[in-house]
Write a sequence for this structure.
C-alpha cells in the first residue's frame, strides 16, 4: 500500500514532462476537485454531516483573495489564508446553527444549501463585488500574484493542495479526532454517553473542512482569472464537491481522489464533446446516471469495492 | 439549582437524588423521587413497565433535564451538564436498546470509549483490548458490531461503558432478551465488575437476577418510589406485590 502510494506519487511528479497542455489541464481539474472533495470528506464523509453548501466556502475564499488582490494589492498567497480563515468562520456559524439546534439529515442539508444560496444572491446584487458580472483578474504571469506562464506550475500547485488535504485527513484518521468523527457518524447519542463532546468535534470538523475549502477558492479564482456568483456560490459547484467523495467512497482516505480520477476527466471530456454539438450541460446527465449506478451497485463507493477486489486477488 | 447539604443521605453518598421530577405532557413520569447510593453499592431499580425507570436513567445521565430536583454525584451537582461531561466525571450508562456503532469492529467500538480517558490512540487501543477480553468478547474483537448476536451486543454495550472507567455504572436491562446461560454469564460479569470497585445502579426485569445481585432495591410505580430496602424486605412488601400483581392478588393471597 505504502509502496503503491509512493509509486503513484512519483509518476504524478514526472507526468507533466510528457503530457500535452490539454492533458495537464485535465489533471489540474482532477487534483483540484480531489482537494475540494477531500476537504468536504472531513465533515461530510468522516463525521457524516452532509453539507451540500460547500460552494459557500469556495466562493467566500475566492472573492476574499480576489478583492484583496484587486483593491489592496495583497498577494493571493496571503489572501488565500485570509479567505481560508473567513471561510472557517462561516463554517463555524453554519455549524453552530446546525449542531446547536440539532439539525440532522435533510435539515442540515437544507441549512447548508441555504447558506450558499444566500451568498450567491448577495454577491449577485452587490455592485462592490461586481454584481452578476463578478470579478476579473488581469493576467500578469507574476508568480507573486499566483499567476504562472507555464500551466504545469498550476499542475504542481493543485497536486500540492490535494496532498495537503490528504495529509490532514490521514492525520485526523490516526488520531482521536478521527475516531470520534466516525463514531459520531454512527450514533451521536451513544457517543455522548461514552464521553464524546459531539458538538465540539462536529464544530472542529466543519471549521477545518471550511478552511481548506476556502483556501481552494483562491486557486479557483487565480486559475480561471474570473469568478461569477453563479459559478462559485452555485449549487452545481456544491454538487461537484460532494459527488467525488461519494462516488469514490466517502469517509475513506483515498475515496475523494479515486472519485476525482473517475469523474473529473469524464466531466471535462463530456463537457468538451457535448458543448461542441451545442449540448451544454449534458455532463450533468452523465453525473446523474453515474450517481444512480454508484448508489445501486457500490453504495459505499468505488474505493472500498476496489479494496475488496484487491484483497480477493491477494488470496 | 443549588441545594443545601443538610439532611438525607450520608456524607459518603456517591449518588444523591433529591425531589427529582419529570413530566411529559400529561404524564408525570418521575415524581419527587429521592434516593442515595453509597460507594461500592449495587442498587436495583425495579418497577412495572412504565414506572419511570428509564426516565430516571435519562435524567441522571444528562439525556433529559429534570423539571425539578437535585442530582449530586460525588458531592457535585450534575443537573444541566451534557451527557458527555457527566460521563467524564465517572458516571457511565448503557442503553436498554443497545446502540453499538454497527460498522465499527468490537475493538474500535470500545476504543472510542477508552479514548475518553486515554487520548492517545495506541493506549486507548490497548485499554480497549483489555476490556474486550474482560467481558469475554476477545474472539469477536475484529467483527463488525452490527454482526453480533444480541447477547454479544449487550456485552459490548457493557464493555464500552466500562472502558470509560466509571465509578458508577447505570445498567438498563442488560439481561433482557438473553437466555438462561447468557444471563448467568452476565450476572457473573456484573458481580466481578462490582467487586472491582464499580458501583452500580441496575434496572432489571429479571427478578431472580436483580434479587441476587442487589444490595438494596428501590421500587418505582407510576413515577413514585413505593418501597426501598433489602431484596427480601422489598419482595414481601405489600405495596410492591400490589404494584406488580394488582390489588386483588394481595387480598386473595393468604397472609
Amino acid at each position: 500500500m505504502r509502496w503503491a502510494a509512493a509509486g503513484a506519487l512519483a509518476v504524478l511528479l514526472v507526468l507533466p514532462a510528457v503530457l500535452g497542455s490539454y492533458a495537464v489541464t485535465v489533471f489540474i481539474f482532477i487534483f483540484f476537485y480531489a482537494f475540494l472533495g477531500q476537504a468536504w470528506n472531513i465533515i461530510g464523509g468522516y463525521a457524516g454531516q452532509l453539507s451540500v453548501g460547500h460552494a459557500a466556502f469556495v466562493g467566500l475564499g475566492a472573492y476574499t483573495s480576489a478583492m484583496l488582490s484587486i483593491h489592496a494589492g495583497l498577494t493571493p498567497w496571503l489572501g488565500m489564508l485570509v479567505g481560508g480563515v473567513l471561510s472557517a468562520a462561516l463554517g463555524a456559524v453554519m455549524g453552530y446553527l446546525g449542531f446547536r439546534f440539532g439539525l440532522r439529515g435533510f435539515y442540515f442539508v437544507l441549512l447548508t444549501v441555504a447558506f450558499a444560496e444566500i451568498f450567491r444572491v448577495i454577491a449577485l446584487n452587490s455592485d462592490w463585488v461586481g454584481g452578476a458580472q463578478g470579478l476579473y483578474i488581469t493576467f500578469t504571469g507574476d508568480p507573486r500574484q499566483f499567476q504562472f506562464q507555464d500551466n504545469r506550475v498550476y499542475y504542481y500547485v493543485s497536486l500540492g493542495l490535494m496532498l495537503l488535504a490528504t495529509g490532514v485527513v490521514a492525520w485526523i484518521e490516526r488520531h482521536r479526532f478521527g475516531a470520534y468523527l466516525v463514531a459520531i457518524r454512527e450514533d451521536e447519542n451513544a457517543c455522548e454517553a461514552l464521553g464524546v463532546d459531539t458538538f465540539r468535534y462536529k464544530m472542529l470538523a466543519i471549521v477545518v473542512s471550511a478552511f481548506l475549502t476556502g483556501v481552494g477558492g483562491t486557486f479557483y479564482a487565480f486559475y480561471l482569472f474570473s469568478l461569477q456568483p453563479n459559478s462559485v456560490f452555485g449549487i452545481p459547484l456544491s454538487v461537484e464537491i460532494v459527488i467525488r467523495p461519494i462516488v469514490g467512497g466517502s469517509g475513506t482516505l483515498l475515496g475523494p481522489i479515486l472519485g476525482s480520477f473517475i469523474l473529473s476527466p469524464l466531466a471535462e471530456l463530456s463537457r468538451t464533446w457535448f458543448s461542441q454539438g451545442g449540448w451544454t450541460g449534458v455532463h450533468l446527465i452523465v453525473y446523474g446516471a453515474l450517481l444512480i449506478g454508484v448508489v445501486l451497485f457500490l453504495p459505499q463507493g468505488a474505493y472500498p469495492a476496489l479494496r475488496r477486489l484487491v484483497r480477493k486477488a491477494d488470496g | 439549582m443549588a441545594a443545601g447539604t443538610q439532611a438525607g443521605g450520608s456524607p459518603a453518598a456517591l449518588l444523591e437524588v433529591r425531589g427529582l421530577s419529570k413530566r411529559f405532557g400529561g404524564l408525570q413520569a418521575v415524581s419527587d423521587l429521592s434516593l442515595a447510593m453509597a460507594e461500592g453499592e449495587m442498587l436495583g431499580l425495579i418497577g412495572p413497565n412504565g414506572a419511570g425507570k428509564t426516565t430516571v436513567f435519562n435524567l441522571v445521565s444528562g439525556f433529559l433535564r429534570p423539571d425539578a430536583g437535585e442530582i449530586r454525584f460525588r458531592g457535585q451537582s450534575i443537573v444541566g451538564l451534557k451527557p458527555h461531561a457527566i460521563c467524564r466525571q465517572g458516571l457511565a450508562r448503557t442503553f436498554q436498546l443497545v446502540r453499538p456503532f454497527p460498522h465499527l469492529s468490537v475493538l474500535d467500538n470500545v476504543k472510542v470509549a477508552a479514548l475518553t480517558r486515554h487520548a492517545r490512540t495506541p493506549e486507548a487501543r490497548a485499554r480497549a483490548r483489555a476490556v474486550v477480553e474482560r467481558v469475554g468478547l476477545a474472539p469477536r474483537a475484529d467483527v463488525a458490531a452490527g454482526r453480533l448476536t444480541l447477547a454479544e451486543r449487550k456485552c459490548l454495550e457493557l464493555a464500552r461503558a466500562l472502558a470509560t472507567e466509571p465509578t458508577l455504572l447505570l445498567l438498563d436491562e442488560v439481561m433482557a432478551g438473553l437466555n438462561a446461560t447468557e444471563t448467568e454469564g452476565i450476572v457473573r460479569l456484573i458481580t466481578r465488575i462490582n467487586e472491582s470497585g464499580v458501583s452500580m445502579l441496575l434496572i432489571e426485569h429479571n427478578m431472580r437476577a436483580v434479587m441476587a445481585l442487589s444490595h438494596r432495591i428501590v421500587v418505582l410505580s407510576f413515577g413514585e418510589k413505593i418501597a426501598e430496602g433489602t431484596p427480601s424486605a422489598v419482595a414481601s412488601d405489600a405495596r410492591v406485590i400490589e404494584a406488580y400483581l394488582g390489588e386483588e392478588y394481595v387480598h386473595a393471597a393468604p397472609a
